[in-house]
Amino acid sequence: KSRGKPPQNPGAVLSWPSLSKQSTSRSSSLTPKGHGLVYSHQPTSMAERLAAAATLRAAASSGPLPAGRRAGPSSSAFFRSSSSSSPALRLVSLRAASSRPSQKAKSVGRGRSVRCMAAASDAAQLKAAREDIRELLNTTHCHPILVRLGWHDSGTYDKNINDWPERGGANGSLRFDVELKHGANAGLVNALKLMQPIKDKYPSITYADLFQLASATAIEEAGGPKIPMKYGRVDVTGPEQCPPEGKLPDAGPSAPADHLRLVFYRMGLDDKEIVALSGAHTLGRSRPERSGWGKPETKYTKNGPGAPGGQSWTAEWLKFDNSYFKEIKEKRDQDLLVLPTDAALFEDPAFKVYAEKYAADEEAFFKDYAEAHAKLSSLGAKFDPAEGFSLDD
Predict the structure, then answer these.
(1) What is the distance between the alpha carbons of residues 28 and 13, in angstroms, rounded to a whole number?
(2) Whole-angstrom Cα distance, residue 101 to residue 219?
(3) What 3-state class would DSSP assign to 192?
(4) Of the residues 217, 252, 273, 350, which has the maximum number of CB atoms within 10 A of its CB?
(5) Which spans does this entry mark as compositional bias, Low complexity (predicted)?
(6) Calculated CA dihedral for residues 50, 52, 55, 56, nearest 10 degrees
(7) Which CATH number do you get for residue 328?
């Protein structure tokens, strides 16, 4: 065969096996030269140029060669060697370079997956966002609503559903209007307004991570325990992925203890975790215009801090401690709120074991609360990396 004879089908895209076969039978095949794929002679006819372009397109889109068939030490080196080829091949090389998938591409050639090298959220930006949240807490006293924001994003989880995001949980869906308008989320639009400037400032973090970061930071800044959090939650992408309404607990069901178990067992939480998490009511107030529960104001809330009004569960409603359990047990102050689901903690025999323990031992409460909060914050989440990451490593 003559060296200059073009292939029979110059427009065909050659597969890797055909490349390998040609390399032993034709002197005009693709061969290793320098650090990339080049022709052993310069194509001169239009047919050869078309064949070269088709072959290089196949090389650019098929990913790494199978073992034993690599034409060069690395795909990136391919473009450095383009200067040794003809102008036509250099043009093909440039086009291949401009169209090469990024690291975040879903897949390339032959169905192989390429894992995104970056985590769902950037750790450095999360740490910086945490400092901004701390400053926000100091200036606006928004601890309770930020705790509620994180809880309500994750509290829609259903352990009986395997698929993400259908299973609900901590996935950032609460940022969409359709979910914000759920009855249980009344007022949380104000929390989103507080978080949005931070999200805009740090675009490389997810809403799912930001909501949980804000919730945990609010607990810690109010004097509560350090929460062993992990990050890397992936966001849902649209409102059609929001959970249906009715996943969160009611304040005044007819059978409070049964209702709490129905909701929290669905999330995979147990009696101890239900009681420990209820202790977060040591923070915040209930506003009748939002929940239908509580007084318009009390001696503890009429002057703020923050917007005045509402009824709190504790006298110092911006301090995280075990006073919630003490007040619920004693019921001595009519200005403090006791919901049916609060009273159930001392009325139900299984709940009462833990409620009595936490009323007497703040250290035990803090330990169990920190573990339960961390678990709640990860419910239903999809992490990237899969194991998540800590900001305190």
Answers:
(1) 16
(2) 43
(3) helix
(4) 217
(5) 17-33, 69-82
(6) -110
(7) 1.10.420.10
pLDDT in tens, 210-265: 999 999 999 999 999 999 999 999 999 999 999 999 999 988 899 999 999 999 99
**Structural domains in the chain (count):** 2
What value does the CA radius of gyration of the chain take, rounded to a whole number of Å? 30
**Inter-residue contact 374 to 227 (CB < 8 Å):** yes
Are 218 and 266 part of one and the same domain?
A: no
Between CA 241 and CA 380 the distance in angstroms is 13
Question: b vs e for 102-134, b when ≥16 Cβ sit within 10 Å of the residue's Cβ?
Answer: eeeeeebeeeeeeeeeebbbbbebbeebbebbe
Q: Are residues 134 and 233 in the same domain?
A: yes
Burial of 303 (0-12, 13-18, 19+ CB in 10 A): exposed
The pair of structure tokens assigned to 81 is: 């060697």
Structure tokens at 136: 């926000």
Say if residue 349 is exposed, middle or buried (CB neighbours under 10 Å; 0-12, 13-18, 19+): exposed
Average predicted confidence (pLDDT) for the chain:
79
pLDDT digits (tens, 9 = 90+) for 15-26: 333 333 333 333
- Once rounded to an integer, what is the mean pLDDT over residues 329-351? 96
Same domain, 219 and 261: no
Tell me how crowded residue 302 is: count the other CB atoms within 10 A of its CB.
12
End-to-end CA distance of the chain: 65
Answer whether the bond into residue 288 is a cis peptide, omega within 30°. Answer: no
Tokens representing residue 224 in the block: 């509560």
Is 259 marked active-site? no
Q: Is the distance from CB of 257 to CB of 348 less than 8 angstroms?
A: yes
Which domain CATH number covers 201?
A: 1.10.520.10
Give the CA distances from residue 164 to residues 179, 267, 376, in Å, rounded to whole numbers and listed in that order.
17, 14, 16
In sequence order, the β-bridge partners of residue 36 are: 33
Q: Is 392 helix (H, G, I), strand (E, B) or coil?
A: coil
- Sorting pLDDT into bands at 50, 70 and 90, what band is 4? very low
**Active-site residue identified among 143, 152, 182, 259:** 152
Share of the chain above pLDDT 70, in %: 70
User: Token digits for 3?
Assistant: 């060296």
pLDDT digits 0-9 by tens, 153-208: 999 999 999 999 999 999 999 999 999 999 999 999 999 999 999 999 999 999 99
Per-residue model confidence (pLDDT) at position 135: 98
